[in-house]
Every structure is written in structure tokens, then in C-alpha cells.
Amino acid sequence: MKIPVTCICGHPIDADEVIQMGAYMRLTGPNVVYVRFRCSVCNHLGEKLIEQQRWHEKMHDAVRSEAAAETVVSVENEQFSSMGPIRADEQIDFHLALAGMAHIEL
Q: Are 34 and 47 within 8 A, CB to CB?
């Protein structure tokens, strides 16, 4: 799961890169969440303080987007299960079609 933190190199930090996390309750001002992480791209050891309200909003958006992705995956699974297995003649046709291409446009 992605958390609302980015490294100095611009890489978004994933939950598996977090070393330490904690909440700090303040008497005055907004409460904050402390995140300590090691970036998997540049190997930078970083620390961030994020307002708790912003943290909750971003985490809620991340959970909601993951739920939407799971819904898409389940729809794709239903479509593929109704197609059945790929037959040998389909594989041969696909191979010949690829062999006949000069280049692939992306």
C-alpha cells in the first residue's frame, strides 16, 4: 500500500519501506504522524511529519483505490474464466502473427 510520503528523489514510499511510524498528540496545533523510511530507489533514510488529518484522508483514498482495483480484477477474472483455456491452434496463430510483424508500435 502506498502511503502519502515521497522521498527527496521523488519516489513514492510504500508501506514495506517504512521503518518506524508513530502518532504525536500535541496540546496546541494539529496532531502529526511521524514516518521514518528508507527509500528503495536512492537508499535515502528519511523522516517526515504529516498532519494527522491529511494522513487519514490520504490513507482513506489509498484504501478506496485498492478496493476499486480489486473490483476490476474480479471483473477480469470473470471474463477470462468464461473464455476457457487457450488452445494450441490459438497459440500457433498468435506466434505466426507475431513472426509476420516487422515492428510493434506502442
A: yes
